[in-house]
Design goal:
Shape: elongated
Oligomer: single chain
Number of strands: 13
Helix content: 40-55%
Strand content: 15-25%
Structural class: alpha/beta
Strand order of the largest sheet: 8-12-7-11-9-10
Distance between the termini: 62 Å
Largest sheet: 6 strands, mixed
Order of helices and strands: HHHEEHEHEHEHEEEHEHEHEHEEH
Length: 308
Amino acid sequence: MNLEQLESIIEIAKSGSLTKASQSRHVTLSAISQSLSSLEAELGITLFTRSRMGAAPTAEGLSIIQKAFEIQKKLQEIQEEAQGYANTMVGDLRLATIPGPMNLLVNAVARFKKDYPQIRPEIAEKGSQEILEDIRHDKIDIGLLIVSESLVQKNAGLVFEHLLEGKMVVGVSRKSPLALKQSVTPEELLPYPFVLYNDEYVKRFVNDFAVRYGPIDILFTTNNTDAIRSAVREEMAVTIGLDYSFINEPNNLREDFVALHIDIPKQQPIYLGWVQSEERHFARVARGFTQRLKYDLRNYHELFLARE
């Protein structure tokens, strides 16, 4: 048994065809067939059932192929570990986040890029559902979103981890009468129009709020954070967001905005977390960045608590 044979059966399993596997591995069909036959003879079992329709794993073959995948993943980790010893980190880092943590994410990426100049980061701002779809289709490596128990249960095949605990707050203009308060009650908010970011969690929170305390006037919903900031700054509306969304705003925006606690009894904690695919290998660049992000978010959370 050798690595070339394991790589061959992995490619056959992925493509469902010896012909496609040979094309993908840039070898002849005869070479792929001989490699498979040799491994089957050595193991004493049939790994694939071959027909005109292609090659399908046998029951015994599925177990062997799964172990081959695990070996391939370990080899990738060894290669990346060795690369780390050479003090290099190279590769793409594809990230997406809901709007709230964008400033936190940008700062973490900037510091990570300073330490590892050869990485190539890409950052996108998206809604939660789009982030989940992009993870499933291998368009991004890591997504930042609100992690709830129901979200985890509905998305088998994805891995979630909590990064930061937060809660919903209301953002108001510094010129608003509400800005003189440290917290507001739901009843005090009801007379004000709301502008909302178009995200499933925000919608869910606001719907629950309306059911519990009464109907609210939604001025507009948008994916444009500048539009939300403009409406709040000009006292056209208030907005609802996560507390850490207001931690690292630029100075001029902090001068225009005030984040207030909402007096809702027993408000459930909200967790910002990352999501990745369970099936795909988590590259060393992505692993290294999540460690940096955890460190930064802990510091930001301590900063926010110090301001309270």
